[in-house]
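Hi there,

I know you've been waiting on this one. I reran it after we fixed the sequence typo, so this is the corrected version. Both the input and the resulting structure follow.
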Amino acid sequence: MLLAAAVIIEKRTDWATWQYLMLFLVPYLIVGWDTLKEAAEGLIHGEALSEDFLMSIATLGALGIGFMPGAETQFPEAVFVMLFFQVGELFEEMAEGRSRKSISHLMDIRPDTAHVIRDGVEQTLNPEEVAIGEIILVKPGEKVPVDGIVIEGYSSLDTVALTGESVPRSIAEGDQILSGCVNLNGVVKVRTTKAFGESTAAKILDLVENAAEKKSRSESFITRFAKVYTPVVVALALIVAIVPGIITGEWATWIYRGLMFLVVSCPCALVISVPLTFFGGLGGASRKGILIKGSNLLDTLSKIDTVVFDKTGTLTEGVFEVTAVHPEVLDKEELLHLAAHVERHSTHPIAMALRNAFPGEADGCEVTGIEELAGHGVIANVNGKRVAVGNSKLMEKEGAAWHPCHHAGTIVHVSVDGTYAGHVVISDRVKESSADAIKALKGAGVLRTVMLTGDQETVASAVASELGLDEFHAGLLPADKVSEVERLIAEGTLAFVGDGINDAPVLTRADVGIAMGALGSDAAIEAADIVLMDDNPSKVASAIRIARRTLRIARENIWFAIGIKVLVLLLAALGIATMWMAVFADVGVTVLAVLNAMRALRG
């Protein structure tokens, strides 16, 4: 604009040049009006050094050069520079739209309405209006509005938006049902257990929406870099345009080079592509049921060299069952019969396994005097006989001559009136995917896999051997697990994988805490950095792979953008570069970097 004013002052009246300008000014304004408007608004709000401002100055300057003595007109270049800039903006918007779509698929879990039964009448309300303990109906094809327990009916649930898994989950009376899932067929009646704001869907949506606010180190660096870089290159552009012009008197030549310098210097390729890469990485992970609480965690996750697992519920099913019965003075059925009766009122997983192995409790047996001894077991009178069920310490207390078992698992000893009657072996099933998960981690370059468990040495050793773990530590209390993690952290970058409920202290202490199988677990969503929405341990390797891929793409964009810009800036200063090369260094590099960033969406 200043240059145009100078032209008017010089009173150049070359009518052909003015006609030529009018010919290109119309398409220039059509194509570049939005950019000029954004540049003006930036000036008003004190944000002069934006890409719109730099592009406006460069193109307006190109229009003005044609009026300088001895200079060739640059009107076509000004129009096409602005046109290609707008094409680049279009590509950026398309890429960002795809990135947002990759995360916005999670927004599909947000329920619209809830059918509440009040005073025997069905009412359709906003989910926020549903109170805890109310009865709701969930019809086929509808999203579950709030978490609850099924009290009537059965159906199948589509959980793909939460877990990334396409296999429907069957539910029946007594099962937990989570908000955000889609009811596929039968009508179910549900008693709510949480308010909408505390439900699974609300917590996940909040987690995803806030993830982009936690910037990675790379993103933070690019933001700081752009704030310093842009003023510096603008100053250099002014120096290139003015100083040589004063010395040589060739103002048109050096102003043209200064304008090219401005076009090249726009940092949009970095400022747009790097955050877009991390945004795409978060979106690609979420599509696989891996919720990462911030792009800053991708930096740390990409450097993981040690992965520590909890055992129960993480590498194993967390479902105990009787795997062997070794009687001494009774037959197998009688041994299980006595053990199940003694444990009939306990909610411990071991007790439940015994009862499941012998379901016929209602057989008229008289069970009295039940006494539970912490850390030992349970004693009761069954039909007048003193039956003790527990560990070896209880057998010693009862004076029963017990003996060890070579089977891996939890050994439950039984004595009757002080005489050793035999023992039952109870084991936790190893997940089918656990061995593949450990192999995948090794394939991803993880140097050490470790298991920490409160279970006994023999059980831990058997699981570690079956899965090919590098090391294990058994018989640990929660505080012991924290100590072990702190020791391992001193030797490398560590991720801890647990169920997010019992392992909250360790999840918090680890470099990256990963809660697995945490669908519906408040403790997991709160304590962990990363939440895997199903119980498949192989997704730990997927999360690491996604993080490393995202960081690699971001580094590619950084080096590519800076390398091309530096090259063209040097060529511009030497007078070798053209405005078309400058346009490629800005718009072309930005488009290529954005297209490269979109690869992160694939996860």
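Quick highlight: The radius of gyration is 34 Å.

Best,
R. S.
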